[in-house]
Amino acid sequence: MAEAGPRTNDGTNDDTGDDSRNGTGDDMDTGRTIHAAGALLWRDGPEFAVVHRPRYDDWSLPKGKVDAGEHVLRAAVREVEEETGIVPRLGRRLPASTYPVRGRTKRVDWWAARPVADAAFVPNEEVDRIEWLPAEQAAARLSYRHDAELLEEFLAGPPDTVPLVILRHAAAHAKADWRDADELRPLDARGRAEAARLSPLLDSYGPVRLVSSATARCVETVLPHARRTRAAVTTDGAFTVGETGPGQAVERLIELVADGVPALVCTHGEVVEELVNGLCRELGEKVPDDPCLAKGEFWVAHIAGDAMPALERHAP
Q1: Closest-CA residue to 92 (of 166, 5, 199)
Q2: 123, 170, 203, 223: which sits with the fewest CB atoms below 10 Å from its CB?
């Protein structure tokens, strides 16, 4: 598995430039590091989008700063759309770029991305031209070596990948204070807020099949996204605590992978570790040292056939 982007001490992808998991741009521009995000935008051909910035008179890939409090996934999507007019659908994560800018360090988190639909480009003060070029021409046009290296990294791996999201349910009412059946234990106020924040992040990867544990707290976690995307939620005992075992859960996950359809599985902390470990073993990849998730966090495995070229972790 080609891991890319920010790394924690276990070698897996995290979502910020430090060891936290909050995924936002908080405090990223207050010190020596400027945090930005963008995408290597490509379409069939393949052709790659390069943009001209009149302020610098250079050619680069679409990117921009992560706003304070903004999640890096949303920043990547927003910046590509603002600069090119194209809404991107994020694919596999690519290595982050780090380089000096006027005495500070700039870090850019990158994804491969496809256009959701064709859009007419309207020149703006940041970008006045966009060109779609084959790989060799795009590499020659790019003004910076780190952008050309990103293109090389993309070409070294599979172009198309299928996202598989493994999501731990959001914060729920305390078990000790719940007197009814455990499967009916709902999200608390914090969990409802987390569930609402998750949906725009999941949108970054495009439509997904929604599969959930048959418990209220898991179904409620994906409900805002189901309503937003008008998708059905299918409950599955294989991912339901108290009804499943490690072998059954992993076997069902591998079946979803074999379907080749983008999917999201919302489950419990007790099940997440087995799913991530089992998925990595099945695909012959390194198992993360810490596969566990806090409530509301999620892994995104990018699948290409029987390989997993990227794995990343995010929080809402």
Answers
A1: 5
A2: 123
| CA proximity to 312, closest of 232, 204, 238, 228 | 204
pLDDT at 117: 77
Note the pTM of the prediction, 2 decimals. 0.89
Burial 35-54 (b: 16+ CB within 10 A, else e): bbbbbbbbeeeebbbbbbbe
Q: At what angle do helices 216-229 and 189-203 cross, to 10 degrees?
A: 40
Phi-psi region at 284: left, alpha or beta (left = phi > 0; alpha = psi -120 to 50): left
Q: 67, 55, 60: which is closest to 84 by C-alpha?
A: 60
| Whole-number Å distance between alpha carbons of 36 and 155 | 23
Structure tokens at 179: 């007197």
Could you tell me the two tokens for 43?
């379409």
Q: Can you read off the two tokens belonging to residue 71? A: 């999640």
Distance between CA atoms of residues 53 and 154, nearest Å: 23
Closest CA to 222 of 233, 208, 230: 233
Neighbouring-strand partners of residue 90: 113
Lowest mean pLDDT, pick from 16-30, 79-93, 149-163, 289-303: 16-30
Residue 89 pairs with which residues in a beta bridge?
114
Residue-level pLDDT at 5: 35
